Predict the 3D structure of the following.
Amino acid sequence: MPNPIDNMKALLSKRGGIARGNRYGVHFTHPTITKGQGRDSTWVQDGRDTWILCTAATLPGKRISTTEATHNHNLSKKPYSMATDEVSTTFLLTSDYYMKKYFDLWQELIINSTGNHYKTSYKDDYTTDVEIHALNNENENIGYGIKLEKAYPIQLSQVEFSEGAEGLMEITVTWEYDNWRMTHMKEGFINDHTPAASRLDNPYV
């Protein structure tokens, strides 16, 4: 008779072990509006800084929206749309408050509040794709990945000071986006011989 414990160990080994909540990465490119247009963006640095400074992230869920309908005298729910969750990421603040300045500028580029009348920019200029990756235990492969399409920061958390505060300081960003899609679908599965170049061309393979 098979040993259930051995079966469990074999399954976990085949699947790369238990997923760890501290194995992840967040990456996004700078929005288009920060590049040129007469604005001083020389202080905007390598986008990989966000990968290093991110201390927490959430993977969003989806909910199928339904409406009640009657068919042959039977009342049932019919799907008609889909709703997504808000996504939040937390970043470590360095002594130069780089991430705070970065997102303050980004929000100012979305809505210019310097004048008497607020001006909203074009959506394509202030949005970008945000990728969140769940990594394996060796931080080498992506076990699960999503892409937030046309994302932008809608809320920044407060930064509190106090005489007794000695710990690390962080800022939390809440993202709005059009939709999220799963990427790297087959990575991590056993017997996956799909060439890496093919995955770059089509992340759903």
Notes: The helical segments are 4-14, 48-53, 98-110, 123-126, 196-201. Residues 98-110 form the longest helix (13 residues). The radius of gyration is 22 Å.
